[in-house]
Amino acid sequence: MITESASGGLAGALREWRTRRRVSQLELAVRAGTTQRHVSFIESGRSVPGRSMIIRLAESLEVPIRERNELLLAAGFAPAYPQTDLDDPQLAAVRTALDRVLHGHLPYPAVIVDRHGDLVSANAGFQVIIRGVDPHLLTPPVSVPRVLLHPQGLAPRILNLDEWAWHIIERIHAESTRNPSDRLQLLAAELVDMAPPRPRQLPPHHLGFAVPLHLRMSEPENRELRLITTLTHFGTATDVTIAELRLEAFLPADETTSTALTELVTW
């Protein structure tokens, strides 16, 4: 008996996620503790799994929890994961933890962004490096990638803009491919129009896989900084808002940068 259309609904969404993750039906079945036959029946619309099976399949495919809720809704179940406003008193402990992380990273820049790269919070180190950015780019919602690459943002002061711009764009493309988002795709297209031609190859001074940010500070400091970045997220979060937060921390790539930031940042 056909219980839903194989081209859409839960069946189509599950098949799309499995294809995106490049996982076979057999591998998914093993991960989720079921049979390939059952996975095949679900994807063909011949069977609608229970709530716990949908969650197990989604976890096995590393589906973001926002989209796990959508899979549950497609099957007629209530969402399993809450989405709490970050200002809600229930998340006071999370906000405190984030503030401590940002402050603890000083004097080096760090920001908290949401799934679209919009600024949630920043420390004094980040405020230092964005001095001179046009005020319209700092009007909420503030897109951190746009601030970095816009001609009225940091772009004129990035000495390796051709490398850094494409590093940012490729990261957004990768995230949009892994976790589809129309907003991210539009942002990536906007940044491509701003970016200089893509370099043919990375220069030999890169630190492993990292593309350093070589930034000239605005007047009156007129110093040059070399920074590398790290990304951190709450990998075990069960609230949509928390799960989608990202910490982007900038670290000095040399002692000169470390000393400069220590002198420039007011704690």
Automatic annotation (TrEMBL):
PROSITE patterns: HTH_CROC1 (PS50943). This is Helix-turn-helix domain-containing protein. Signal peptide: none annotated. It comes from the Bacteria. It holds the Pfam family MLTR_LBD. Residues 14-68 form the HTH cro/C1-type domain. CDD domains: HTH_XRE. One of its GO terms (molecular function) is DNA binding. SMART domains: HTH_XRE. It comes from Microbispora triticiradicis.
